[in-house]
């Protein structure tokens, strides 16, 4: 059996170019994925060494080109950098290319060099893991802001690979793969030639943990893309892996279909996949116990694997052929293939295959009549299977624990975020309340100030009006008094005959007519607001004349002055005062004056 997960060598986490696969075919998914993860680095270098070198001037062809049109040139540029043995010189060369890109204002090429340096230092320069992880994470953030030439997808792929290979943090790797999948959803295959490569790598991660249903979805998405010389290796790997998924699920007819699809490929670059698929078809027939069909297919795979130094695949085919020939009674040929299997397992450094070889050896020794050796290999088989299961179970437990830890971290982060949002909300609410309070205080201040100004203005106006009214009233009163004095002087100084006409004129102006009284009352009300109304309310029995007495008394006029203003004799004023005092039941004139003053 030859799983394609380990048979196909991808150029790197960043690049998706074409390269001859490593010929290694373990029987199980664990060792399949392990070799892919641990033998990539050295062979990636071999890939780049095979590409022609270019001078700095030759990078002109990369300037301002879509990624699909410059992907091979980018690979060649990486090869130039990898060819430099001295790390300081490599950094210097990278700086020259970055400067070249900057001069030509090609941000994509500039970031391409940044991607290479971060990737190279993380995977091949024995840089501390925490430094590598920090730089890879920062790179993802950088290229996410300027997603040129699908750099975000390629950086996510590199970060996922680092989590998987160096950190052993499978859950974090899956998280990056899911982000990568989102990137692919918005990309076009013709614009991004490495899309099939990315889908394959995500599918491999699910295959590794035996989640075949999900793995198949990604492999099918990959093989649905148009096949070209650039991606034929990836697509045939996807077809082969689909066959392996169905083989693991014991759906052998479906497995045959995809293995045969690989054998039909028209691209010579994928010739090695035809041998791999041939071996896997042999495995299907072995599982069906159709040994006549299985033998030629497995022998083709075995011989091709030996020729191409794919020792793991050679060991896998040898184990199955040994079991078939043992079943057919050809003990010698079965023993030969057992010996081949042992040799190639050692050369491939894949001890996990022993769990598949030991049961065959136990049956071979039993058939040869060596019960003791047969029993020993039964025990060895059990021990080998236990070691493998413990190893794989430990990985599953580790992933489960990582998942729990990741969920706990997310919960803690969510709790922290919620708490921070709560505090921010409380702070904002407090600020808002303070702002509202300040606005309210300012508004209240201005409203009160406006009211106070209006009140002050009104009071000032009222005061001025009152002062004016009193001044007018005083002038009116003084005018009357002056006229009364003038009448007296004339009466005392001039003969009766001469002063009659003048006296009558002055008296007419002195005696208050009804109109005079109304004018006087208006002035009085302004000087003493509400006095007349209060007198009417408190002493409603007073006559009009008596009310006028109250008004003149409030002005502190003498009896003589009152008589002059009302056009009566002083004695009439005294009689009126006496009548008012009796009507109001007041003891004396002083009591009347005090009452008028207090109204």
Plain-language structure description:
- The protein is an all-alpha fold.
- The chain is built from 25 helices and no strands.
- Among the domains are: 285 residues, Tetratricopeptide repeat domain (Serine Threonine Protein Phosphatase 5, Tetratricopeptide repeat, Alpha Horseshoe); 87 residues, Arc Repressor Mutant, subunit A (Orthogonal Bundle), CATH 1.10.10.
- α13 packs parallel to α15.
- It is rod-shaped, with a radius of gyration of 57 Å.
Task: Kindly summarize this structure in a few lines.
The protein is mostly helical and 599 residues long. It has helices at residues 4-7, 29-49, 67-83, 87-103, 107-124, 129-145, 151-167, 170-185, 195-208, 212-223, 232-248, 252-263, 271-287, 291-307, 311-327, 331-348, 354-367, 371-493, 496-510, 514-527, 531-538, 544-554, 559-566, 570-583, 589-598.
């Amino acid at each position: 059996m030859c799983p394609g997960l380990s048979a196909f060598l991808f150029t790197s986490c960043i690049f998706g170019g074409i390269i001859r696969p490593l010929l290694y075919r373990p029987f199980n998914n664990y060792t399949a994925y392990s070799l892919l993860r641990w033998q990539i680095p050295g062979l990636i270098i071999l890939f780049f060494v095979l590409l022609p070198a270019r001078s700095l001037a030759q990078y002109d062809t990369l300037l301002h080109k879509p990624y699909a049109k410059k992907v091979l040139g980018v690979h060649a540029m990486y090869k130039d950098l990898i060819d430099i043995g001295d790390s300081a010189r490599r950094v210097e060369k990278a700086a020259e290319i970055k400067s070249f890109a900057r001069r030509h204002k090609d941000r994509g090429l500039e970031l391409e060099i940044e991607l290479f340096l971060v990737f190279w230092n993380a995977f091949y320069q024995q840089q501390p893991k925490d430094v590598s992880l920090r730089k890879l994470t920062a790179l993802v953030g950088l290229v996410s802001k300027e997603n040129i030439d699908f750099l975000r997808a390629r950086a996510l792929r590199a970060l996922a690979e680092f989590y998987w290979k160096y950190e052993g943090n499978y859950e974090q790797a899956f998280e990056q793969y899911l982000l990568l999948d989102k990137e692919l959803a918005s990309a076009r295959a013709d614009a991004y030639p490495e899309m099939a490569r990315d889908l394959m790598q995500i599918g491999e991660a699910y295959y590794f943990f035996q989640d075949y249903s999900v793995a198949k979805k990604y492999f099918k998405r990959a093989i649905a893309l148009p096949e070209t010389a650039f991606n034929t290796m990836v697509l045939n790997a996807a077809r082969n892996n689909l066959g392996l998924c169905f083989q693991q699920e014991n759906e052998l007819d479906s497995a045959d279909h995809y293995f045969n699809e690989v054998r039909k490929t028209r691209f010579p670059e994928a010739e090695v996949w035809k041998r791999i698929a041939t071996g896997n078809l042999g495995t299907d027939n072995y599982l069906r116990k159709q040994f006549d069909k299985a033998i030629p297919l497995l022998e083709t795979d075995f011989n091709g694997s030996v020729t191409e130094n794919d020792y793991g695949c050679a060991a896998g085919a040898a184990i199955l052929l040994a079991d078939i020939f043992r079943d057919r009674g050809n003990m010698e040929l079965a023993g030969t293939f057992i010996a081949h299997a042992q040799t190639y397992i050692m050369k491939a450094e894949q001890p996990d295959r022993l769990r598949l070889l030991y049961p065959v050896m136990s049956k071979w020794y039993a058939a040869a009549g060596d019960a003791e050796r047969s029993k020993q290999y039964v025990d060895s088989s059990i021990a080998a299977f236990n070691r493998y299961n413990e190893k794989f179970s430990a990985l599953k437990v580790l992933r489960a624990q990582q998942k729990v830890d990741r969920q706990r971290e997310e919960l803690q982060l969510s709790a922290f975020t919620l708490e921070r949002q709560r505090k921010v909300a409380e702070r904002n609410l407090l600020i808002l309340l303070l702002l509202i309070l300040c606005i309210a205080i300012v508004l209240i201040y201005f409203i009160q100030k406006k009211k106070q100004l209006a009140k002050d203005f009104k009071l000032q106006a009222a005061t001025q009006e009152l002062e004016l009214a009193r001044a007018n009233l005083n002038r009116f009163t003084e005018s009357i008094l002056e006229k009364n004095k003038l009448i007296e002087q004339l009466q005392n100084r001039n003969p009766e005959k001469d002063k009659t006409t003048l006296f009558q004129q002055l008296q007419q102006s002195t005696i208050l007519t009804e109109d005079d009284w109304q004018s006087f009352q208006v002035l009085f009300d302004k000087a003493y607001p509400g006095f007349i109304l209060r007198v009417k309310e408190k002493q409603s029995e007073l006559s009009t004349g008596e009310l006028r007495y109250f008004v003149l008394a409030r002005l502190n006029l003498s009896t003589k002055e009152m008589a002059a203003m009302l056009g009566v004799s002083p004695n009439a004023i005294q009689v009126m005062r006496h009548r008012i005092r009796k009507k109001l039941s007041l003891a004396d004139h002083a009591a009347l004056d005090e009452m008028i003053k207090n109204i």
